[in-house]
UniProtKB/TrEMBL annotation:
This is Aminotransferase. GO terms for biological process: amino acid metabolic process. The lineage of its organism: Archaea, Methanobacteriati, Methanobacteriota, Stenosarchaea group, Halobacteria. Gene3D superfamilies: Type I PLP-dependent aspartate aminotransferase-like (Major domain) (3.40.640.10). GO terms for molecular function: pyridoxal phosphate binding; transaminase activity. Belongs to the class-I pyridoxal-phosphate-dependent aminotransferase family. CDD domains: AAT_like.
Amino acid sequence: MEYETPLFFHVMEYADRAETDVIDMVSGNPDWEPPEALRTGLHEFADADPGRFQYPPSDGLVELRAEIADRRGVDIDQVVITNGAGEANYLAMARAMERNRGSEILLTEPVYPYYPGKTTMLGGTQRFVPTDETGQLDPADVRAAASDETAAIVVNSPNNPTGAVYPEETVRELVAIADAYDAILISDEVYDHFDLSGQFSSALGVDSDHRIVTNSFSKSLAITGFRVGYAIFPPELVANARSRHMLVNVAGSRPAQYAVLHALRETDPDYYRRNRELLRERVETFTDALDAAGAAYTTPQGAFYVMARFEGYPGTLANIEQLIDEIGVAGMPGDAFGDSRSDWLRFALVTPRVEEAAERLAQYFD
């Protein structure tokens, strides 16, 4: 069996090998500082008793799970700490498949490419539901695509790559569709702190035994390398998720979880607000330059990605490599996210050099 391999690391490695100065706009690695409390937590842990350096509970530090449960309004037993949102989504999709209610997973188009890869790895089949030009998902299209073979519906809001934020009525209807077909709605909410629209609605706001919510602290605390995420399961699905997590990972990182817990308890909400404001400024700077270049583009409602389309320059890997070689700007090919965006390029605005990258693109395509 061959799995779909996302292109992110290929593009990053190509950019690293370039002989010229390259501005990295490939992956969602925040360039800003993590909260001060996170560093404090790491320092505290470094001075802890050696016994604290051993295995944590497999499903995560009790204190961290309790903190998440309290913040999300769920029972602590529903929370499993994972190796980032990547593992959280894997566990959620696995539990959906293991229910033997079908083998098909509904995905949006365009799609974050790790979802199709996980579907194949778990022995499922993919079915794509198109979104509109802004990335919004019409629940009627999801309902039309759903069937008795639907094991799961996977959605991501705020969305990567489109930046769409699904309103409450969409989220409620998606849960209702999962209920109607005895499927599982998997709501990946990793960008929830980067809602620029004020419309974000968590699937946790809808009472149902047919939804799993996944998240992580990689983006919100600017710590993609710490790999601390979580999944919130319905009570009847959590036991096997814990077992799979234990068999694959044994446990997660105790120091990383300790530092995250300290950061959650001690970080003022203003930290998140400042980062959202920084992104608003970068979106405006970048899209102004795209206007100057005569490009079409998406204006994100959330997350930190902009998709752009330049006339006669499709979103292929070869064209991305050409931009790296000729102007030193590294983005992602639109066709990595599905056929519907094959004419587009995707740029991550998590670099202090957004303005410089925008100027290079504007000059190149002028």
